[in-house]
């Protein structure tokens, strides 16, 4: 089974995915909108399995962000499902309400396949991230945390980026283990207003 690579999507295809996310959220408020996308409307790249994250912000503040790192479903369906989940199932936030829609922005990030990075120490990882501003997944002892590459805009220093990622996973800021698995990935993304 082939997997959609983030590098293969053009602006038109990304715009279609943003529209899918909008429709998924709109469908929560209207019974007239189908509960899943019509695959016949989309080309092969968007109906091939893909992994994505959908990030929602209301008035510039995070309102929801859920996604997948492994491609199981057609990309267009994954975007639809993740948009609905980010709006109404992210347990960190109250479900999106209709009065927030005028201030809502949606970002769809299509992930490349995460690659395992061999690191001998945390410093090796930090040195790599000094020049490569990629997405990072840390995993160890049944805990895992992920930051999309967009987080670099808020945490531009590698040490701060990794420290906050470890806190997100539930580890202490200075935690490191010889068993720590590091995966890196890139995204192709598009962001737009709900209206």
From TrEMBL:
Gene3D superfamilies in UniProt: Hypothetical protein ph0010, domain 1, Hypothetical protein ph0010, domain 2
PROSITE patterns: AMMECR1
Domain AMMECR1: 12-195
Cited InterPro entries: AMMECR1, AMMECR1_dom_sf, AMMECR1_domain, AMMECR1_N, AmmeMemoSam_A
Protein name as catalogued: ACR protein
